[in-house]
Amino acid sequence: LEELQDGKFNKAALIALDQKQSQLLNENLILPYLSNADSTVRGTALWVLENHPDWEMAFTDYLQYYFSHENSQISELKSILRSFVNTKPVQSYLAEILRSANKSIDEKFQVLSLLEANPPKVLLPGLKDSLLKLLSSQDERIQNAVINLAVQLKEDDFLSEFRALLAENKDKPSVKLVLYKGLVGLGEPLATNDFEWIARLLLIKESQ
Predict the structure, then answer these.
(1) CA-based nearest residue to 81, from 41, 110, 40, 104
(2) Is 0.90 surpassed by the pTM of this model?
(3) Digits of tens for pLDDT over the chain (208 positions)?
């Protein structure tokens, strides 16, 4: 298999080995194909990888390839992330991206979008901590995405942060509205004056 250069042969060989559950096919063998420049070969390797959810380290290697190549296809990652998103190595790597000062806002937003599309059953401490820190981001897209994800995951640990942000963003109607949505989504009752503020904002929006 390693001597084959043609993408079609590589694809056929990977599929054949996987379907026969061959002992020749293992996590180390699949690694070089996950970063293959040929999208057909790479896609086949990802298909094989999806059938082996215990190969979490191989998937983490693919994440490193994905976030270091500008031409990476998000459709590839979306189709397979759900099989690995609950594992510690994968959540740790995603947390590292969200924490990194070297990653752009767009890259971080992409991670949040991927998590929203493939929500983990359990949010592990490292990833949860990175998300909590992102709540103080100056980028409203990032704030909104974290709030929506916290509601989707029913993470009550975010309630105190939501309240603190609400106090800090009194002059930012769009942020306040998303925070109110987050509080309600996590089962927090709103005061009468909160509802009145939301009603006034909606009336203003309708009149514009």
Answers:
(1) 110
(2) no
(3) 444 444 444 555 555 555 545 566 788 888 888 888 888 888 888 888 888 888 999 999 999 988 888 767 788 888 899 999 999 999 999 999 999 999 999 999 999 999 999 999 999 999 999 999 999 898 989 999 999 999 999 999 999 999 999 888 888 888 888 899 899 999 999 888 888 888 888 777 667 6
